[in-house]
Amino acid sequence: MALQRRRHNNYQRIRIRLLIPLISGVAAALLVLFSLLSILAPSPNDTDHLRHFYTSSLNATPDDAITTPVFCVPRGGGKMDRHVWSSRNSEHFHGCSDAGNKFPNNFVFLMAEAQVITQANRYLMIATSGGLNQQRTGITDGVVAARILNATLVIPKLDQKSFWKDSSNFSEIFDVDWFISYLSKDVKIIKQLPRRGGKTLSSYNMRVPRKCNERCYVNRILPVLLKKHAVQLSKFDYRLANRLDTEYQKLRCRVNYHALRFTNPIFSMGEKLVHRMRMRSKHYIALHLR
Predict the structure, then answer these.
(1) How far apart are CA 224 and CA 266, in angstroms?
(2) Residue 113 and which of 5, 17, 58, 267 are 20 to 30 A apart at CA?
(3) How do residues 169-199 score in pLDDT, each as one tens digit?
(4) pTM of the model
(5) Which positions, given as ranges, span the membrane (predicted)?
(6) What domains are there in the chain, each with its CATH number?
(7) 69 forms bridges with which residues in the sheet?
(8) Could you read off the pLDDT of 69-87 as tens digits, one per residue?
């Protein structure tokens, strides 16, 4: 009996030793196969136009790649021949930034525009905080806050005192005239506070709690705004709730994806970088360094 058990155990060990190289080989083959698939698989937005460009770009010089516009980012929220909605992965999605019919609208009053909604002697200023992404969020929320309060929005102040030490103002980063005109049917926007009696109207400085909703703004800010006429909300980062009425969410989209447009020098630099990237590959990873 002991001899039979020994033979059986030896047989099991030999079988396991033979199986290990086989399993390793199969695993290696699968790994190579998946690697090849990931390299050869087309990107979700891959089109004939992209393939043609990628083939022709191999024979192009670096100077040709930069001077000849191949990819054009749409200005003013328009469409281009290759955009996110043409992807085969987007068949169940659609754009949703347009205002609905129930949004208290300035759209039928083409001459008066946002002045129909905006009440006189209500001026809202915001001082953004953080890096550029946080400040962009603050600007977007500031527009919605002005709409909630039926107030005129003064062009936001960018954060120049944080550790970034960036002295740029709004007009040096974003196209301020486009920003004002694009949102003219939603919120009245001015570049600076008006003058009264030969002096610029002074603002009352205060801070709103984080994630403040519509009722919070009406209860906390509106009474002060009615009394002081001009209010500046300081350190304006994430001071508006994430969950809002659908129409306010759509307004957020209009501000962030259409109204906030970079100035021409920044836009040109972005186009140049995109051209150079497309010369080298058709797959990209965006990395946000902290």
Answers:
(1) 38
(2) 267
(3) 999 999 999 999 999 999 999 999 998 888 8
(4) 0.67
(5) 20-41
(6) 119-263 (3.40.50)
(7) none
(8) 444 445 544 445 556 666 6
